[in-house]
């Protein structure tokens, strides 16, 4: 989700790994997004992220507040 935190919305995504990530983030309630049905040609999907939901913004804020795992 960090990779889309500062994106301009709507964000169109065709990369299949990213589309799967978007589906998971949408299922968790972190983002509002639409995902297409699989293409008849190759079975690929595309998605459009409309916005980061308040729950997603809260998760990003918690991540920023977390101390580093391995102090320098």
Helix and strand topology:
Blueprint: E1 11-13, H1 16-27, E2 31-35, E3 47-52, H2 54-65
Antiparallel strand pairs: 1-3, 2-3
Task: Tell me how many strands there are.
Answer: 3
| Beta fraction | 15-25%
The main sheet comes to: 3 strands, antiparallel
> Helical percent range?
25-40%
Low-confidence region ranges: none
Q: What spatial form do the alpha-carbon principal axes imply?
A: elongated
CA-atom Rg in angstroms: 14 Å
Count structural domains. 1
Assembly form of the protein = single chain
Number of helices, where a helix is a run of at least 4 consecutive DSSP H or I residues: 2
Order of helices and strands: EHEEH
Mean pLDDT: 93
Straight-line distance between termini? 25 Å
Which structural class fits the helix and strand makeup? alpha+beta
How would you explain this protein's 3D organization?
This protein has 72 residues and is an alpha+beta fold. The chain has one domain (2-65). The protein is built from 2 helices and 3 strands. The chain has helices at residues 16-27, 54-65, and strands at 11-13, 31-35, 47-52. The longest helix has 12 residues, at 16-27. The radius of gyration is 14 Å and the shape is elongated.
Characteristic terms for this protein:
72 residues, alpha+beta
Please outline what is shown here.
33% of the residues lie in helices and 19% in strands. The chain is built from two helices and three strands, in the order E-H-E-E-H. A three-stranded antiparallel β-sheet has the order 1-3-2.
